[in-house]
Structures are given as structure tokens and as C-alpha cells.
Specification:
It is a single chain. With about 170 residues, the chain is an alpha+beta fold. The chain contains five helices and seven strands; from the N terminus they run E-H-E-E-H-H-H-E-E-E-E-H. It has a seven-stranded antiparallel beta sheet with strand order 1-2-3-5-6-7-4. The longest helix is centred in the middle third of the chain and has 19 residues. It is globular.
Length: about 170
């Protein structure tokens, strides 16, 4: 089946990202992603103060955990790739993009809830089912992190098998 040609840039709002990704509840904090090209994205995430994880990290001094900054980057990159990368759009089967490796992670400044956290993301296809994702992360024009991860595509069945010890 022929895919419709993509015209960059285009922006996906929260509901459009939600339609692409399986994430729900407190872990899903993506607000928007702009697909500037097949492997270049700008996105925003925001953690509300009433998020259960924020409430416990640290009580009385809420800070967004670094691991959630990484998770949001993976979600934004995943949505950008699913919407804007012709190769990823051509993959068939019931595939999930999963975090496979955190290669580099530098946190430079704490992030408070209720603030837009902006991501500038660059992806590189490493293998047919693996993508390197690098991002610069800012909040209120302050660089808060530099992140570099690897995501892989796996079938939902392989994931279920791994979870059941198979």
C-alpha cells in the first residue's frame, strides 16, 4: 500500500500523540511534537503537580525525576518516528518501541512540575530495528539535560514472552 507523502514540518497535539502510543495515565506527559523531518523533532512535556510520582519525589520539594525526563524523550521520539519517518511507517506487525539502552545522561538543572520541558531530538537508524535518539532538554530557556538512548522495535508477542519468563 502506498503511503501518502509527508510534508514537513507538521505538529501533533497531545490527542494525536496518544493515538500513536500505548502510554496512559501519569506516565504519559507529552503535550506536542513537531516533526521537522524524518529524524528531527521538537517536543514538549509537562508534569502536573498532582502526578503521583511527583508527589513522592521529594515530598515538600517536588522535582521531576531524571528517569521521567528520559521516558518523555522516548515517547516524543517514538511519536515523531511513527508519524514522520517513512521507514518506521513502513514497518508491519504489532510492534512496540522500547527503551533498550541509556547511553548518556547528564542532568544539569532540576526540573519543577507545572513547567513546559522542551526537547530537541535527533534520531539515527542504527539497524533495521534499532534507533539512536539524542536530545537536548530545556525548561524556561535553561538547559536541564543532555540525553542519548537507544530504542528498539519488538513485537508485542516477544514482549509478552519476555515478561512471562519465556
Amino acid at each position: 500500500m502506498m503511503q501518502e507523502p509527508l510534508h514537513y514540518p507538521f505538529t501533533l497535539e497531545r490527542s494525536q500523540i496518544e493515538a500513536l502510543l500505548p502510554h496512559r495515565g501519569d506516565i504519559f506527559v507529552c503535550q506536542r511534537v513537531t516533526v521537522e523531518g524524518p529524524h528531527q523533532f521538537k517536543g514538549a512535556a509537562r508534569w502536573p503537580l498532582d502526578n503521583a510520582v511527583i508527589q513522592g519525589h521529594f515530598p515538600g520539594l517536588p522535582v521531576v525525576p531524571g528517569v521521567l525526563l528520559i521516558e518523555a524523550m522516548a515517547q516524543l521520539a517514538g511519536a515523531g518516528l511513527l508519524a514522520g519517518d517513512p521507514y518506521v511507517r513502513s514497518l508491519t506487525g504489532d510492534l512496540l518501541g522500547v527503551l533498550a539502552s541509556v547511553r548518556k545522561c547528564v542532568f544539569k538543572h532540576p526540573v519543577l512540575p507545572e513547567r513546559d520541558v522542551d526537547y530537541t531530538i535527533q534520531c539515527r537508524q542504527m539497524a533495521p530495528m534499532a534507533v539512536q535518539v539524542a536530545a537536548s532538554v530545556t525548561a524556561q530557556d535553561i538547559e536541564v539535560a543532555q540525553l542519548d538512548i537507544v530504542m528498539v522495535y519488538t513485537s508485542r508477542q516477544q514482549m509478552l514472552s519476555a515478561l512471562s519468563g519465556g
